[in-house]
């Protein structure tokens, strides 16, 4: 019972959504602009943490990037202009989802090729396995024995 309660508590703690680390001083007064800033921040990678967006990171650089995004939005930039500004400063790596272009084709296409290759290997393996375990033809001696058993009316499984 205690283990079940501990597992339920752990599940509850892990299921609580992570709250963004945006400080109240960073927030924009216009709720619509703040919502845009939050959406953009979710798409930008923290260059310190690398596996977190700047919206989720508490690194100092992530805070600086959040402020830059909000400054650009306050200046009237579109979302594309904000992304272009940040990419020009920090490079493509700052994007959580890289753009599809020749430099990232390998990144985008590799999973498909791996799945396709795995499927081909699986089909070939199963086909070869089926051929190896297939029923081989009977020898003349086995055919004669089978004919004898069939003529007597005894099924082959009950042969002595």
Residues in β-strands, percent: under 5%
Question: How would you state the average pLDDT, rounded?
Answer: 80
Q: Name the helicity range.
A: 55-70%
Oligomer: single chain
Structural class: mainly alpha
Order of helices and strands: HHHHHH
- Give the name of the CATH architecture of the largest domain: Orthogonal Bundle
- CATH class of the largest domain, anyone? Mainly Alpha
Describe the structure using short key phrases.
single chain, 160 residues, mainly alpha, Helicase, Ruva Protein, domain 3, elongated
Tell me about this structure.
This protein has 160 residues and is mostly helical. It has 2 domains: 2-99, Cytochrome C biogenesis protein (Helicase, Ruva Protein, domain 3), CATH 1.10.8; 103-158. Helix content is 59%, strand content 0%. The chain has helices at 2-15, 31-42, 60-74, 79-90, 105-132, 140-152. It is elongated and about 95 Å long.
Write the layout of secondary structure elements.
Blueprint: H1 2-15, H2 31-42, H3 60-74, H4 79-90, H5 105-132, H6 140-152
Helix pairs in contact: 2-3, 3-4
Task: Please sum up the structure shown.
It is built from six helices and no strands. It has 160 residues and is an all-alpha fold.
